[in-house]
Amino acid sequence: MGAVGPDPAVAAVRLAVRRTLGMIEVGDLVLVACSGGADSLALAGALAFEASRSGHRAGGVTVDHGLQEGSAERAAGVVAVMADLGLAPAEAHAVTVGTDGGMEAAARTARYTALDEAATRHRATAVLLGHTLDDQAETVLLGLARGSGARSLAGMPAVTGRYHRPLLELGRDLTHRACHAMGLVAWEDPHNRDPAYARARVRADVLPALEKDLGPGMAAALARTARMLRDDADALDDWAARVRAEAGTDEADGTVALDVSTLTGLPRAVRTRVIHRTAIAAGSPPGTLAAVHVEAVDALVTGWHGQSHVDLPGRVRVRRRYEKLLFGPSETR
């Protein structure tokens, strides 16, 4: 009788990791961000297995946000599991979560800061994140609720700099089965069920309701939509970057100028992207620069009737002068 292969769920997670490792130089260090939940724990187990065969070095990092009683002990337990898997380094990072943007956003900022520090210190080429197809679907729905544009609805990319998301094509139910098959006991974060958090409400109520009323496969359909929107958004962003480089000039007084006639001939989707890029280049913070601000500047191009100026976050002022849009500091800056 032939050898029995791995559990199908385990095989699927390992294959996803193997494909990611194929993009990384053999011998480089790859870290996995592991919370102890099923998604990241299955990812950690698959990374340890695949790296031992591919010639990559593999380590793991868990972040202790300090938001729940016993978090330090739980982080120590995750470190022990990662070390047992053969990941080295295997370490925990305690962070202080601020308040900017709400608890979820502040925790995410603190987490990525810790992961960046660990990757830099260990000279890791890549950090693997355990986001799944279900996480992608939730991200799309949250973007819809905010009235966001195509870039937000495009969800999370598979690769962002050093960060890789190998599991974006796999469902959360599969990672739970993979953990069980690998003998890994996952931790259930109570925040994932806390209705105070928008993502928890989407997970517990909205997606199940869509599955019930519209039929199964909604998470996969939303993730597929995100992939298509990402292709479209990437193409529009590339177009906008070319226009910004060709039509934008730096003036002697420190302002950034855009040629109005060039902007007028563009589709709105490209024109507003050019405006957005230029506003950020002039000093407007991307986290607070909103669609309403970009639309107000766009009106200086498409609805010009002598408006004085538009003020943007970051004390950036936009004026129309001599068929140019001038982005510069406001008078009170």
From TrEMBL:
Q: How is this protein annotated for GO cellular component?
A: cytoplasm
Task: State whether keyword Cell membrane applies.
Answer: no
What's the top EC group for this one?
A: ligase
What Enzyme Commission number(s) apply to this enzyme?
6.3.4.19
Known InterPro entries for this protein? Rossmann-like_a/b/a_fold (IPR014729), TilS/TtcA_N (IPR011063), tRNA_Ile_lys_synt (IPR012094), tRNA_Ile_lys_synt_N (IPR012795), tRNA_Ile_lys_synt_subst-bd (IPR015262)
Chain sites annotated for binding ATP: 35-40
One GO BP annotation here? tRNA modification
Query: Superkingdom, according to UniProt?
Result: Bacteria
GO MF terms, alphabetically ordered: ATP binding; tRNA(Ile)-lysidine synthase activity
Keyword Lipid metabolism set for record:
no
Which keywords annotate this record?
Answer: ATP-binding, Cytoplasm, Ligase, Nucleotide-binding, tRNA processing
The record's subcellular location field reads: Cytoplasm
Q: Which reaction does it catalyse?
A: cytidine(34) in tRNA(Ile2) + L-lysine + ATP = lysidine(34) in tRNA(Ile2) + AMP + diphosphate + H(+)
- Domain characteristics, as noted in the entry: The N-terminal region contains the highly conserved SGGXDS motif, predicted to be a P-loop motif involved in ATP binding.
Which purpose does this protein serve, as stated in its record? Answer: Ligates lysine onto the cytidine present at position 34 of the AUA codon-specific tRNA(Ile) that contains the anticodon CAU, in an ATP-dependent manner. Cytidine is converted to lysidine, thus changing the amino acid specificity of the tRNA from methionine to isoleucine.
Q: Which family does it belong to?
A: Belongs to the tRNA(Ile)-lysidine synthase family.
This one is known as: tRNA(Ile)-lysidine synthase
Q: What is the lineage of its organism?
A: Bacteria, Bacillati, Actinomycetota, Actinomycetes, Streptosporangiales
